[in-house]
User: What shape does this take?
Amino acid sequence: MAGLRLGPLLRYTDGSSATVWVETSRPCTAEVRCADGSGGTARTFQIAGHHYALVPVTGLTAGTSTTYEVLLDGGRVWPLPGSPFPPSAIHAPGPEGGLRVAFGSCRWASPPAGGHDPVGPDALDALATRLSSDPEGERPDVLLLLGDQVYADETSDGTQRWLAARRDLNDPPGNGVADYEEYTHLYYESWLDPRIRWLLSTVPSFMIFDDHDVIDDWNTSAAWLADMRATDWWRERLLSGLMSYWVHQHLGNLSLEELAADPVYEQVRKLPDGTDVLRTFAARADADPATVRWSYRRDFGRVRLLMVDSRAARVLDEQGRSMLDPGEEAWLREQVLDSPGAYDHLLVGTSLPWLLPHLVHDAEGWNAALCRGERGPRWARFGEKVRRAADLEHWSAFPESFARLAGLIAEAGSGPDAPATVCVLSGDVHHAYVAEPSWSAVLGPAPGWCSWSAPPSTTRCRSPCGWPSASAGPPCRAASAAASPGTDDSRHRRSPGARPTAPGSATSS
Assistant: This one.
């Protein structure tokens, strides 16, 4: 009988459909069977000796919840026997009502029970504990994971012991993972945590990668990339990282319509073994990142979410350096400006912060100028060393990209059809903060603006965390000439903005 190795993960969800991701012990048919009669089946596909299925669930009723179970070849494998957790459920959003979002990044896997945790309490684990102890209480409608879902370059003691049994850790890449099989171990370590496993089975999740999903400072500069490509282990690490990301994270971001139109997914499912197809895809993504799009859009009623790839889509040439390549930037602009007035709140998810403290912002701009060669080759080499040592690679390290994103937000937030709020959600920096920019009065009325860095309720930070305080009012008040709730702008009166109800979560209504 087929067994359940990993999952289930509840991924894409809308008012009538959802997807549920599983890994199984052998080829089989996976089925999701819901209490209200909805459900679906999918045959597993094979990658590198592992078997996966993304089960399409159809027939859901908007605005309702239904519990579900998972069967493999007709045998029930979820819920686990004797599970202490409430039944996993799919909550199909309705056309009206607010949206409650929990988001975070940079999660190290929890240590074994009783083991020492150098990072500190696992806040995502704590969220799971709270939800499981009060299943009828307040809960997020969606979980946004903004990068570093696994750490391929900074592994736990347990993982290092497992790696040492496979190969000599004195050889590169040392304690980091080397291939697809080792990547799968990282996902087992993180997602088999019982509380996390239950949480991911019942709260829809959307994900995007950051550097540690592959390696620290991934694509920080052209010089960095040249150095990595000169090693004999980098190519396998990168291709395996992209392949494992596609399987474990990317597929679940897609709607049923997008999956049906995805040629790689179609080929992988048709073949007895899709490894070569997926590896070819990953190699193409490495050779020409502009041919692959990891970014995506989701509309939750009157809330629009744009998850932006700010790692693989970079242009690294110092004379034309950009956070997003031209195609990616055009896509983002098109999604932001599509159907003005169709959304009241805009959320832009990017693994790297858009707004930083003034000193850091200016230091990154100064460093970018040095690396461009504005003070000559000697200073450019010095600037590159500083860039790598200090991790100067956020939006402000790409000054023209920063300015273009600011201009796009200003354009979207101006005029009679402007959204009530625009929030940029980020991770990476291992502490939580809310930054609120002022806006030039010449832009006219604009919404509330803010940039949130990942709150620690869904992240395990390696440095002390600050907590955004809960508030009854909007976290991003309109600044300068921006309109705020209570002005004559009816859209702003109707949609007062995203409000935090607990550290690390936000609601829009």
Summary: The chain is about 30% helix and 20% strand. Residues 288-356+394-461 form a domain with the Transcription Regulator spoIIAA fold (CATH 3.30.750.180). Confidence is low (pLDDT under 50) at residues 455-509. The first helix runs from residue 123 to 133.
